[in-house]
Design a protein that fits this description.
3 helices; elongated; Ribosomal Protein L9, domain 1; single chain; Ribosomal Protein L9, domain 2; 2 domains; three-stranded antiparallel β-sheet
């Protein structure tokens, strides 16, 4: 069944995407929860008209996201953590710590848009992915150091 997403869904698509899912998933979960609508001919036609009208706004958002991505690519943040003498840190570095470090640098990013990857549990330099728009992803370099 073809549906039009009204919200972003992980592993399914972004808002306003037309995707194909199994009938039961659409009829029993997505449509009743308000996450999607059925992609009938009239709904698709209305959706296309709305997309044309939003094209200018989307271009502006993409440009702003690209500016932020360029800014993030030029930043290297440092995160302090308590560590053992062998370089293993107590706990791990997470997206909340990275979001706070970016905020100190003057860039506000929601923590859910930062992907740290594997658990960082040692001192060193690492890279995280910051998702700013559908296809605009910036690499954030960060260094974990041992606090005294």
């Amino acid at each position: 069944m073809n549906i039009i997403l009204k919200k972003d869904m992980n592993n399914l698509g972004h808002k306003d995407d037309i995707v194909t899912v199994k009938d039961g998933y659409a009829l029993n979960f997505l449509i009743p929860k308000g996450i999607a609508i059925a992609a009938t001919k009239s709904a698709v036609k209305m959706h296309e008209e709305n997309q044309r009208q939003r094209a200018h706004k989307i271009e502006k958002i993409r440009n702003e996201a690209q500016v932020i991505a360029d800014k993030i690519s030029g930043i290297k943040v440092r995160i302090g953590a308590k560590a053992s003498s062998a370089g293993k840190i107590f706990g791990s570095v997470n997206n909340i710590m990275l979001a706070e470090a970016l905020k100190k640098e003057g860039v506000t990013i929601e923590r859910k848009n930062i992907d740290v990857g594997d658990n960082v549990k040692e001192v060193g330099s690492f890279t995280a992915k910051v998702k700013l728009y559908k296809d605009i992803v910036a690499d954030l370099e960060y260094e974990v150091y041992a606090e005294e």
